[in-house]
Amino acid sequence: MNEHLYRWRNRQLREHVAVVDGHLAPTKILKQATYLNVFLKKWMTANIWIYEDRIVYVGEELPEKMSPKTEVINCKGRYLVPGYIEPHSHPFQLYNPHSLAEYALKTGTSTLVNDNLMWLLLLDDKKAFSLLDELQNMPVSLFWWARFSSQSELREEVEFLDDEDVLKWLNHEAVIQGGELTNWPDILREDERGLYWMQETKRLRKVVEGHFPGASKKTLTKMKLLGADGDHESISGEELYRRLELGYYAAIRQSSIRPDLRKVLQDLNELELNVWDYVLYTTDGSTPSFYDKGIINECIQIAIEEGVPLEDAYSMATINPAKYFSLDNRLGSIAPGRVAHINFLHSKEDPTPASVLAKGEWIVKDHEYVGQPYEMDWEKFQLTKMEIDWELDPDELRFSMPVGMEMVNDVIMKPYPIRSEADKNVLARSEDEAYVMLIDRDGEWRVSTYLKGFTKRLGGLVSSYSNTGDIILVGKSKRDMKLAFDRMKEIGGGIVIAHAGEVIFELPLPIRGVMTNIPMEELIEKERELKKLLQDFGYSHSDPVYTLLFLSSTHLPYIRITPVGIMDVIKKEILFPAIMR
């Protein structure tokens, strides 16, 4: 079977029919299963036949032909629902697409639609597409979207995303969406390239995902006219209702930097929303520890607690996103012809499954993980350790900008006038001010200023994890920043913290300095350690990993440190250009 197209060969299709006709034995029989029929929004009882990776029959009958290899599962006392779908994943928040997908399956999220940004930054198209094919071998279903912008101000944006590359991605079988439209103001005004890519997406009968935080009804209307289909940026029930009113599919976000789901549902209850067919959930690329108890199962739990009807709470995680992506003939339901992604629940009110089937294989059985781990050979795709063949001269740690960046929250920065004495070796502990530098991973340029609100006394942090794949240095001590940089270089990329002349934390990121290859369970504990350490040093916000990721992201206000320099995002002006090394 081709995972991306779900095209079974004629021989396989004949076998599926032969099972129904009694000429072949099914692989599994789920006997007397109480399951959610998402089409009728009704709990029903049936016998479910599975042949290899596909559901071939749902009904009252039992098969005429059995074999010793047929597994019969008595489902009495269990409630079956379709595998959950995460429609908007950024699978590179320290974890990688493989480790995230493997972890997601354990709590019933068996389909993820993923951002392709890191593959654009790290791989050529041929290698990237080979990797997408390799990931088909996992029991999870992985799909992708095609970026229309880098979310930053790259030095070679046109080369990074040209027509040929975008169209190659849009035409790939694994790509089911264009966007997300973080560059929508430009498209609305004069970006003909972006508008062309939107129209090509529509021509291919794929959806265009928006990114319209705080958008007015008029703006949403105009973007609908240009081709947008969905949006996940509602921060209130009123905003989400506005999107539904205009015919958008609207995902409610429950993420580490925007845990909005409960409040939005409460708002929608006041607005008396009673039609949920165009509402989805997303965790929007949360950082590892946010996923401690699972992914989409946690969203369903909140919806149930907030009074969403049970059948709708599950439909928002299954058939609704499947319909949005036109995958409902393959995913999102327990019905003939669908891929055998099925979750077995103890009760209707508890969406964390006791057992999980994915592509007809057991992943979890009675709360015990029984799946066969799928090992990824990252070196096969040239996703090896970061190699830095240049030195950072201590004399380059210069910080004499008149304007710095002050943290409003985890990810939003506003400009502020710098009053500290210029360019000392160590900044005073009395101020929550630190040096910050973005330096090219190839060592060609650097940008520096001050960052207020990140730490009160930390010596130095260096991260090769960033939105552009370049290197971030933050700290109060130039000596500690240099020490952390040298250690990060030595381990081949990662996040390293040094203080008082000693390395006190390191998280290696051996997949090109951006992603780790350790299991999610280990990464969750490691990220908690990082967060606790930074909070001890004066970080007062909630998500330092996202702070590092979004320091250079120009889809957020107001000022950013980018590869071309310090940028005023609103005016799209470079306040202070990057310095060539």
TrEMBL record:
- Which top class of enzyme applies to this chain? hydrolase
Keywords annotated in UniProt: Hydrolase
Kindly state which reaction or reactions the protein catalyses. Answer: adenine + H2O + H(+) = hypoxanthine + NH4(+)
- In what residue span(s) does the Amidohydrolase-related domain sit? 79-362
Extract one GO molecular function annotation from the record: adenine deaminase activity
Which EC number(s) does UniProt give?
3.5.4.2
Q: Which residues form the Adenine deaminase C-terminal domain?
A: 425-572
Superkingdom, taxonomy of origin = Bacteria
InterPro entries xref list: Adenine_deam_C, Amidohydro-rel, Metal-dep_hydrolase_composite, Metal_Hydrolase
According to its UniProt record, what is one Pfam family this protein matches?
Amidohydro_1
What PANTHER family would the database entry show?
Answer: ADENINE DEAMINASE YERA-RELATED (PTHR11113:SF6), N-ACETYLGLUCOSAMINE-6-PHOSPHATE DEACETYLASE (PTHR11113)
Instruction: Name the family.
Output: Belongs to the metallo-dependent hydrolases superfamily. Adenine deaminase family.
Q: What is this protein called?
A: adenine deaminase
Organism of origin is Tenuibacillus multivorans
Q: What is the lineage of its organism?
A: Bacteria, Bacillati, Bacillota, Bacilli, Bacillales
